[in-house]
C-alpha cells in the first residue's frame, strides 16, 4: 500500500470511466473512502485515438474529468448521488485522485455477458428503482444526462441506499439548450435503439432524457430477470437486436411492472414514457401505498455553468499533493464547496 497525503491507498475495488477505484483510509479519522485514480498520460493517449475530430475532448483530454468534478461539486448533496469528498492533484504528478464516499456494498447487481444471476423480487427491485428514479429526476431537473446508467454504476452504501456513480461521460446542458446528444460513449448493452443508429451513422442527434429512460428500463429489466434483454458478443449484431427485437419480459411479473418496462423500452424515443410519467406509474408508487417525495422536494436546482466546467481543475479547488509532501501544513478540506 502507499499513501497520498492523509490517505492510505489499499486494495483495488473496481473501475470507472477513465480510472481504477481503490479502497483508501484517512489516517487522521480512520474512515474509509473510495479513491478513483486517473492516469493523466493514459487519458491523453486514449483520447488521442478515440476522440472525434473537433470535439471538446480532442482539444482537452482532461475535459471529461473536469466535467465530472464540476457536476459532482454541485450535485453531491443528493442522497442518491455518490458524493465527491476531496480532489488531490498537482500539475507535476502523473495521477489525479478523486476521493468519494465509500459504498460498502458495491454495485447493486453484478452482471456477466450471456450469464444469468439471481434476480430481485419485485419488492426489492421497486426499492432500488425508486432511488434510481429520484437520482435521475434530480439530474434531469439540473439539465444533466448521465448517459451511462447500468447496474455497475449504481452503488449501495452500508445502509442500503442506492447512489448513482461515474459521471465521466455525462452531458451538461445550458439553460436554453436543447437536450440533444450528438456524440455517444456508453455501454453497448444499455444503448437505446436511436444511439445504435447513431453509431451506424443513420441518426445525427438523439433526445437526452429519452436516452436515460431507455437505460433505466434495461436496468429494471436486469433487476427482475438477472440478465440483459439483448446480448451478443458481436457489437453490430447486438445493435441489430436492440433495433429489431422486442424484450422478452417474464410472464411471472405483475402486469404493472411489465407495462412499465415495455413503456421505458419503446423503440421510438418519442413514444417512450417520460420521467414525469414514470413518477406517476402505479408500479413505482406501489398503487399509492409508497408515495415518492414530491418533485419539488427532490428537484432543487443546482446550475452547472460552462465556466465551472472550464475551471473545475483550478489549483484552488484541490488539495495540493506537492505542498503536503514538502511542508507540514494542515489538510485543505473542499467539502464546503461541494
TrEMBL record:
Q: Residues that bind ATP, according to the entry?
A: 36
> Domain named Protein kinase: which ranges?
7-284
PROSITE patterns the record matches: PROTEIN_KINASE_ATP, PROTEIN_KINASE_DOM, PROTEIN_KINASE_ST
Q: Which domain of life is it from?
A: Eukaryota
BP terms from Gene Ontology: intracellular signal transduction
The UniProt keyword set, sorted, is: ATP-binding, Kinase, Nucleotide-binding, Serine/threonine-protein kinase, Transferase
Asked if Nucleotide-binding is a keyword of the record, the answer is yes
Q: Name one Pfam family in it.
A: Pkinase
Identify one Gene Ontology CC term for this UniProt entry. Answer: cytoplasm
Query: In Gene Ontology terms, what is one molecular function of this protein?
Result: calcium/calmodulin-dependent protein kinase activity
Protein family per UniProt:
Belongs to the protein kinase superfamily.
What is the recorded name of this protein? Kinase-like protein
Q: Which organism is it from?
A: Rhizoclosmatium globosum
Amino acid at each position: 500500500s502507499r499513501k497520498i497525503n492523509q490517505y492510505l491507498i489499499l486494495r483495488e475495488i473496481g473501475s470507472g470511466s477513465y480510472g481504477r477505484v481503490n479502497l483508501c483510509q484517512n489516517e487522521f479519522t480512520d474512515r474509509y473512502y473510495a479513491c478513483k485514480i486517473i492516469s493523466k498520460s493514459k487519458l491523453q493517449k486514449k483520447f488521442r485515438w478515440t476522440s472525434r475530430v473537433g470535439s471538446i475532448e480532442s482539444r482537452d483530454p482532461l475535459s471529461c474529468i473536469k466535467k465530472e468534478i464540476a457536476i459532482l461539486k454541485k450535485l453531491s448533496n443528493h442522497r442518491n448521488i455518490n458524493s465527491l469528498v476531496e480532489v488531490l492533484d498537482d500539475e507535476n504528478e502523473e495521477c489525479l485522485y478523486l476521493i468519494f464516499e465509500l459504498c460498502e456494498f458495491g454495485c447493486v447487481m453484478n452482471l456477466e455477458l450471456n450469464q444469468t444471476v439471481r434476480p430481485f423480487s419485485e419488492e426489492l427491485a421497486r426499492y432500488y428503482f425508486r432511488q434510481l428514479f429520484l437520482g435521475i429526476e434530480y439530474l434531469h431537473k439540473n439539465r444533466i444526462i448521465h448517459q451511462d446508467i447500468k447496474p455497475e454504476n449504481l452503488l449501495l452504501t452500508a445502509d442500503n441506499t442506492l447512489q448513482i456513480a461515474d459521471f465521466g461521460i455525462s452531458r451538461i446542458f445550458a439553460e436554453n439548450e436543447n437536450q440533444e446528444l450528438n456524440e455517444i460513449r456508453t455501454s453497448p448493452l444499455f444503448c437505446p435503439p436511436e444511439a445504435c443508429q447513431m453509431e451506424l451513422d443513420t441518426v445525427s442527434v438523439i433526445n437526452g432524457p429519452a436516452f436515460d429512460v431507455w437505460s433505466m428500463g434495461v436496468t429494471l429489466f436486469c433487476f427482475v430477470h438477472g440478465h440483459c434483454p439483448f446480448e451478443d458478443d458481436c457489437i453490430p449484431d447486438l445493435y441489430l437486436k436492440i433495433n429489431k427485437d422486442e424484450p422478452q419480459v417474464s410472464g411471472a411479473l405483475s402486469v404493472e411492472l411489465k407495462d412499465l418496462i415495455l413503456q421505458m423500452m419503446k423503440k421510438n424515443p418519442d413514444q417512450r414514457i417520460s420521467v414525469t410519467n414514470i413518477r406517476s406509474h402505479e408500479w413505482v408508487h406501489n398503487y399509492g401505498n409508497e408515495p415518492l417525495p414530491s418533485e419539488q422536494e427532490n428537484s432543487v436546482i443546482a446550475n452547472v455553468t460552462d465556466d465551472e466546467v472550464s475551471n473545475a481543475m483550478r489549483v484552488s479547488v484541490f488539495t495540493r499533493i506537492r505542498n503536503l509532501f514538502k511542508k507540514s501544513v494542515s489538510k485543505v478540506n473542499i467539502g464546503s464547496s461541494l
